[in-house]
Design a protein that fits this description.
The complex is a heterodimer of chains A (112) and B (116). Chain A has 112 residues and is mostly beta strands. In chain A, 0% of the residues lie in helices and 56% in strands. In chain A, strand 6 and strand 7 form a beta hairpin. With 116 residues, chain B is mostly beta strands. Chain B starts with a strand and ends with a strand. In chain B, strand 5 and strand 6 form a beta hairpin. Classes of the chains: A mainly beta (112), B mainly beta (116).
Chain lengths: 112, 116
Amino acid sequence: KQEVTQIPAALSVPEGENLVLNCSFTDSAIYNLQWFRQDPGKGLTSLLLIQSSQREQTSGRLNASLDKSSGRSTLYIAASQPGDSATYLCAVSPGNNNDMRFGAGTRLTVKP
Amino acid sequence: DTGVSQDPRHKITKRGQNVTFRCDPISEHNRLYWYRQTLGQGPEFLTYFQNEAQLEKSRLLSDRFSAERPKGSFSTLEIQRTEQGDSAMYLCASSLSSGASTDTQYFGPGTRLTVL
């Protein structure tokens, strides 16, 4: 059974810092990995999707990497801003995007 | 396009009552997913549809839960004889699957269910 773990569970940084969020998964046979953002009481917003054949994806200040063999992904946020404060979730799909398994998330607070 | 919408946004019910939630996906999306999320946890997959066909159901989806997507557009999730353990946020997502590749899942705002 695929288990997804995110470390740390919570992170607080001052504005402007670069930071890294970690995601690990137990079964390397994945189809893709996604990073999502969730604001309190809201739905999820997709940030980046990495197909299993890819190593990384970039969008603005965000960069996500994928190392399937070691079962790890990182989300790098450059020059953090207070508006980045949210919970960040990673999810892996065993095949063609059904039955996504999510981690419990990292709750990020960026202090002005 | 207004994205994925869910109705109601909040539902409070008494134990033993039946509840039904609705999800309207992005119009051209052929896949629709239901997830459940409890406080401090990531979403857990419940079921998904490709067009009107329900292709997969999680073991989390007990006999009290039923989902439909009768015309391949909107979907409903019904919970019968609700229990306090059903209290959670119920999230709907949709995506466009073209076979060879899969687009991102787009999530709705969720329906928060509280069972008293």
